[in-house]
What we know:
The protein is an alpha+beta fold. The protein has one domain (14-41, 58-216). It has 5 helices and 7 strands, in the order E-E-E-E-H-H-H-H-E-E-E-H. A 7-stranded antiparallel β-sheet has the order 2-1-5-6-7-4-3. The longest helix is centred in the C-terminal third of the chain and has 34 residues, at 183-216.
Amino acid sequence: MSTFPGSARTVPGAIIGVEPTNPLARIVLFQYNPDEVTRTVIPRAAPSGGSGASNAQRLWGSPSETISMTLDLDATDGLEVGDPIAATTGVAGRLASLEMLLHPPTATTIANTALLAAGTIEILPPDGPLTVLVLGPTKIVPVTVTSLTIREQAYSPALSPLRASVDVDLSVLTASDLSPTDAGFALSIAHQVVKESLASVNAVASAGAAASVSIGG
């Protein structure tokens, strides 16, 4: 890390699961921001029966978007300064926070098990937490975690991983996917407004650059 006093402070990315019953278990602050983020954006398909020449230009909602990235975890820095958590569990705690994004709350699981044992006919699957990806001020979106591929490395004597690399695959949720009463709906709309603003600023800047080139030529 640069020691120059004027160096810009890096803002860490995060994946945050908003779970009121255990809010700390689903907060994942990136130890290192990913070197690369892959985004795949696909136009939303027409609903059944909506195809045809008359519908070719229609926008059937916000496009679907998937995001892939690799997160690197390393307990070395903690070990160098004598951090007892790093010495005891390595990066296992960081991995647990990521995996908790895919688990229903334990209290809900126990309650549903008790209801089934008592003879309740139907138990609805519990709702997952509102999960939010934060990649800087222009990328704050509701997501679902579709997969985690975890590679653990360099185990401690207690068999805790000291390093790990995690491939994270996410699906972005848009206003087309969510109910207007869902907190993620407003978050999605806000992100779309930010994107429209960025596009507008870019158009003005591009027009100004083109005009200056034309005048200069």
